[in-house]
């Protein structure tokens, strides 16, 4: 039988000690349902230390990411307030950070099922996610990465825009610049054809997990490009056509 608490402690310790570990599945088989139990158990450890759940992130919603990571199923991870970045991100607590441009949603009212989610969107923004696999070299199987909270580490979002004023978000050009250099470009179309599909997938996972999406929560729809290594002492900007931009300085 899978020892969920023990696996959660292993991942949590890896994160806190900033030391990469071997995939959990090296030690024996791990099913997807148990992997999500481990993910929840890691969250419970974090909330016991005072962190607060403030949203979810979707993973593997784009082909670029599926191909990059060799995985082909949509997953989610849980976001806490300690992961939200204002303008500076200290990389000393991260093992092997990577960054990717994202579309973010702000939830305006409680969502218990997927049919309610479109109407519950209070804002859309350009954002970024900083990934940090707790597994050496980002080498993992699907259950491993689920247990590891979909490699979630940090994220930032730009100004919220009224979705009704955007006239569709299925083809928003996204640009990632590091130190003023154009590093990645993509379209929100890469996110399941339309980030709204990713949002609905999040609502379905929420329903299944019995974790309603709450007002004020952020849903990160997933990357529009492959992730790139995030260097120290760098100024990074992610822009979305019609959505403005969000910047972060790493130290
Ligand atoms: C897993 C997280 C994938 C995305 O946007 O597809 C993800 C990883 O690549 O380490 O967040």
From TrEMBL:
Pfam families: FAA_hydrolase
Classification via PANTHER family: 2-KETO-4-PENTENOATE HYDRATASE, ACID HYDRATASE
A GO molecular function held by the record: hydrolase activity
Organism: Streptomyces lunalinharesii
Keywords annotated in UniProt: Hydrolase, Lyase
Boundaries of every Fumarylacetoacetase-like C-terminal domain copy: 96-248
Protein name: Fumarylacetoacetate hydrolase family protein
SUPFAM superfamilies linked to this entry: FAH (SSF56529)
Hydrolase listed as a keyword: yes
């Amino acid at each position: 039988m899978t020892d969920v608490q023990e696996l959660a402690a292993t991942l949590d310790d890896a994160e806190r000690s900033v030391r990469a570990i071997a995939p959990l599945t090296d030690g024996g088989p791990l099913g997807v349902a148990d992997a999500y139990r481990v993910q929840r158990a890691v969250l419970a450890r974090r909330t016991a230390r005072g962190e607060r759940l403030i949203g979810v992130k979707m993973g593997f919603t784009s082909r670029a990411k599926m191909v990059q990571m060799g995985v082909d199923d949509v997953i989610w991870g849980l976001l806490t307030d300690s992961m939200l970045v204002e303008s500076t991100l200290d990389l000393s607590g991260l093992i092997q950070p990577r960054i990717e441009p994202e579309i973010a949603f702000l939830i305006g009212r409680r969502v218990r099922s997927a049919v309610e989610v479109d109407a519950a969107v209070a804002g859309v923004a350009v954002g970024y996610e900083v990934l940090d696999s707790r597994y050496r070299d980002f080498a993992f199987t699907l259950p491993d990465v689920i247990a590891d909270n979909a490699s979630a580490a940090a994220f930032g979002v730009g100004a919220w825009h009224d979705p009704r004023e955007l006239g569709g978000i299925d083809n928003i050009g996204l640009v990632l610049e590091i130190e003023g250099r154009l590093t990645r470009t993509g379209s929100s179309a890469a996110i399941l054809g339309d980030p709204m599909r990713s949002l609905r997938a999040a609502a379905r996972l929420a329903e299944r997990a019995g974790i309603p999406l709450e007002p004020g929560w952020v849903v990160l729809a997933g990357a529009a490009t492959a992730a790139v290594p995030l260097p120290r002492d760098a100024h990074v900007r992610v822009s979305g056509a019609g959505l403005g931009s969000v910047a972060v300085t790493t130290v």
